[in-house]
Amino acid sequence: MDKQFFVGFGTLALINAGLAQGKNRSGLNWFLLSLILGPIATFFIVISETK
User: Fold this and answer.
1) Residues with Cβ < 8 Å from 33, sequence gap 6 or more?
2) What pTM, to 2 d.p., does this model score?
3) What is the pLDDT of residues 14-26, one digit of tens each?
4) How would you write 19-37 as a 3-class SS string?
5) pLDDT of residue 35
6) Nearest alpha carbon to residue 45 among 32, 34, 3, 36
7) 30 Cβ partners below 8 Å, 6+ apart?
8) Which of 3, 16, 27, 40 could potentially form a cystine with 34 if both were Cys, beta carbons 3.0 to 4.6 Å apart?
């Protein structure tokens, strides 16, 4: 696969971890989940309500 694909998913996972921490959720869990799900995880973080 292309290197840019992995760099993009890694960057997105870091962004998702920051978003999750901003909503008082586990950044590490969302980082790992984002490595697998990518943009779908971003969608779930954005639509989720804060605790």
Assistant:
1) 16, 41
2) 0.83
3) 999 999 999 999 9
4) HHHHCCCCHHHHHHHHHHH
5) 92
6) 34
7) 16, 17, 19, 20, 41, 45
8) 16
Domain count, the chain: 1
**Other CB atoms within 10 A of residue 21 CB:** 14
Question: What distance in Å separates the CA atoms of residue 51 and residue 38, rounded to the nearest whole number?
Answer: 23
| Lookup: tokens for 12 | 């997105």
Encoded amino acid at 19, one letter: L
The string of pLDDT tens digits covering residues 2-50 is 788 888 889 999 999 999 999 999 999 999 999 999 899 999 999 988 7
- Tokens representing 2 are 């292309």
Range of the domain at 31: 3-47
